[in-house]
Specification:
- The chain is mainly beta.
- It is built from one helix and twelve strands.
- It has one domain: Metal Binding Protein, Guanine Nucleotide Exchange Factor, Chain A, CATH 2.170.150.70.
- A seven-stranded mixed β-sheet has the order 6-7-8-9-4-3-10. The chain has a three-stranded antiparallel β-sheet with strand order 1-2-5, with no helix packed on it.
- It is globular, with a radius of gyration of 15 Å.
- The mean pLDDT is 95.
């Protein structure tokens, strides 16, 4: 559901946690890191990144459960239905990554790249023309 021309809304599976993202987003990318794959139970996760002030909780903030997935990163999910929703890390200070699948409508940016390509699930074939990024940072161009 679109709130206005300048924002989009999103929610978890059960609808208890609802939020609004003010556009524009900084990026939209597929992440292939093993932590994202395990946290979402999927071969990749598509994220959009926004400055933290561009994410507004509409309902259910108290339902969010936070998990420190590393010493420098935190993931948030709905405590009722388990939907993974947000990622925040020191590496991207002041930014929140929002699970693209939880957002309804167009964020104004297509998927731009595959990140952490070196860590991908090799059992899932991917033949699109998007840039492949990897290396130590997960965001360096790969051969």
């Amino acid at each position: 559901m679109q709130v206005s021309a300048a924002s989009v809304t999103g929610a978890c599976l059960c609808g208890d946690v609802r939020f609004e993202v003010t556009l524009p987003v900084r990026f939209c990318a597929h992440c292939h890191c093993s932590m994202c794959r395990r946290a979402h139970g999927a071969p990749l996760v598509t994220w959009v990144g926004v400055p933290r002030p561009q994410l507004k909780m509409i309902a259910g903030e108290g339902r969010l459960v936070h998990y420190d997935s590393s010493a420098t990163a935190r993931r948030s999910f709905c405590g009722r239905c388990g939907s993974p929703l947000f990622f925040e890390g020191e590496r991207w200070a002041g930014e929140v990554h929002v699970a693209r699948a939880a957002i309804a409508g167009d964020v104004g940016v297509p998927v731009q790249a595959h990140c952490f390509w070196d860590d991908r699930a090799t059992w899932m074939p991917i033949a699109d023309p998007l840039p492949r990024l990897g290396g130590p940072s997960g965001t360096e161009p790969v051969g």
